[in-house]
Amino acid sequence: MSSPRTSGKSLFANLLLWIFFAGGLAASAGAGSVLDGTQKDVATYAGGVVALIAGSRIARKPRIAAFLSRPGTLWFLFLFNGGMAVTLYFVLGGTDGIIAASAMGVVSLGAAGGLVAGRRKRAEAAAAQRSAVRTTPWA
Asked: Which of 35, 101, 109, 117 would bridge 40 by S-S if both were Cys, CB 3.0 to 4.6 A apart?
């Protein structure tokens, strides 16, 4: 059992991760309306990196990882990000469109990989269960 002090540290660490994630997204998305030139580029990229690092740490939490590995969630991520990749390519155009479409496409392909891996695991588990049923003497 965890002590109150440990759970307080864990709550603080989780809260800090979520603050960094939200702050990184806000800096990445909102830098253009506040800053100009090089400062805008630095804030956009730094915010993206901070959000990416904090988001990857959040995704490793057991409850979040379980949610992200569900087939329904993976299908949503695959279809939504794939559709957004195509949309961004045509709406933004040029280099910005290619970069945005590539990033969304990578996320979509990652979700597709999760779907394939999950299907393979379920097929192997079903095959193991069938072979276990055949080998039991009372079946």
From this structure: 35
